[in-house]
């Protein structure tokens, strides 16, 4: 069942969203050559505890995966794109890192992800990250009241294809609010003017993710980490968005300028 949120409930989700955006920006700054993934995980655990928030990932046990997830971040490196388990790995120059997190504060949830390049950026990696960021912004623009869910999906697919990337249809965005995963499913490719009508109060996580040269995936033996089937680099961008009468409202904007290609990838390039 799809629950439309009131204006007051969206404001409560926005409180969570601000924290998620701030912490993701903070983590993207901490990620550097020589930093262990476990350091990022424990940094996030401390910040979440200090805020009095709760991780939506801890003890998460969907149909896939091996046992409950016992981390607060998904950290996916290079050819890993989704659900990467934080582990004893020291970031190297040129690594492409995707950070995904979802937390709840006072019963309301927000979910967001970004990809960054650690150290020296490869232009192909910058382009891949940019494609996910531009696709996310296009999808947000398409999330207009009175439109259709297919408008969002089509916007993502159109951008991905314009960059020359193929889209995997197995994982996408989702409804969000009281829990991390609610109806509806938000596909990363689709047909405009089709599907669920977008009504004010609908809250969704939109999350384009792409592999460099394939739309096929494989799982690690841990049952969680999803990688490109051919070992190509991957990237992932996500925001929690509310449909309002005046248009889409992004609840997880980060405190730095975050619009399309002027996101983390561009920051990494400038820093180099």
Automatic annotation (TrEMBL):
It catalyses: Release of N-terminal amino acids, preferentially methionine, from peptides and arylamides. One of its GO terms (cellular component) is cytosol. GO terms for biological process: proteolysis. Residues 247-272 are annotated as: Disordered. Gene3D superfamilies: Creatinase/methionine aminopeptidase superfamily. It comes from the Bacteria. Its EC number is 3.4.11.18. Residues 260-272 have a biased composition (Low complexity). Binds 2 divalent metal cations per subunit. Has a high-affinity and a low affinity metal-binding site. The true nature of the physiological cofactor is under debate. The enzyme is active with cobalt, zinc, manganese or divalent iron ions. Most likely, methionine aminopeptidases function as mononuclear Fe(2+)-metalloproteases under physiological conditions, and the catalytically relevant metal-binding site has been assigned to the histidine-containing high-affinity site. Residues 12-245 form the Peptidase M24 domain. InterPro entries: Creatinase/aminopeptidase-like, Pept_M24, Pept_M24_MAP, Pept_M24A_MAP1. GO terms for molecular function: initiator methionyl aminopeptidase activity; metal ion binding; metalloaminopeptidase activity. Keywords: Aminopeptidase, Hydrolase, Metal-binding, Protease. Its cofactor is Co(2+); Zn(2+); Mn(2+); Fe(2+). A divalent metal cation 1 binds at residues 100, 111, 238. Removes the N-terminal methionine from nascent proteins. The N-terminal methionine is often cleaved when the second residue in the primary sequence is small and uncharged (Met-Ala-, Cys, Gly, Pro, Ser, Thr, or Val). Requires deformylation of the N(alpha)-formylated initiator methionine before it can be hydrolyzed. Monomer. PANTHER family: METHIONINE AMINOPEPTIDASE (PTHR43330:SF27). Belongs to the peptidase M24A family. Methionine aminopeptidase type 1 subfamily. This is Methionine aminopeptidase. It comes from Verrucosispora sioxanthis.
């Amino acid at each position: 069942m799809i629950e439309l949120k009131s204006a007051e409930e969206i404001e409560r989700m926005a409180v969570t969203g601000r924290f998620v955006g701030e912490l993701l920006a903070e983590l993207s700054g901490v990620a550097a050559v020589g930093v262990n993934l476990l350091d990022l995980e424990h940094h996030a655990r401390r910040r979440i505890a200090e805020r009095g928030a709760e991780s939506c990932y801890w003890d998460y046990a969907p149909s896939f995966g091996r046992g409950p997830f016992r981390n607060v971040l998904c950290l996916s490196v290079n050819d890993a794109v989704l659900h990467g388990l934080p582990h004893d790995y020291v970031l190297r120059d040129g690594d492409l890192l995707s950070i995904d997190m979802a937390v709840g504060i006072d019963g309301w949830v927000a979910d967001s992800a970004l990809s960054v390049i650690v150290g020296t950026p490869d232009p192909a990696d910058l382009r891949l990250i940019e494609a996910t960021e531009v696709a996310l912004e296009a999808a947000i623009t398409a999330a207009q009241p009175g439109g259709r869910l297919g408008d969002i999906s089509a916007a993502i697919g159109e951008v991905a294809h314009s960059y020359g990337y193929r889209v995997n249809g197995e994982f996408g965005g989702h409804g969000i609010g009281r829990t991390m995963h609610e109806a509806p499913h938000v596909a990363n490719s689709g047909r405009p003017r089709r599907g669920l009508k977008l009504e004010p109060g609908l809250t969704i996580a939109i999350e384009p993710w792409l592999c460099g040269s394939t739309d096929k995936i494989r799982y690690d033996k841990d049952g969680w980490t999803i990688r490109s089937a051919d070992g190509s680099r991957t990237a992932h961008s996500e925001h929690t968005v509310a449909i309002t009468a005046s248009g889409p409202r992004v609840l997880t904007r980060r405190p730095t300028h975050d619009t399309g290609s002027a996101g983390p990838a561009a920051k990494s390039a400038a820093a180099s």
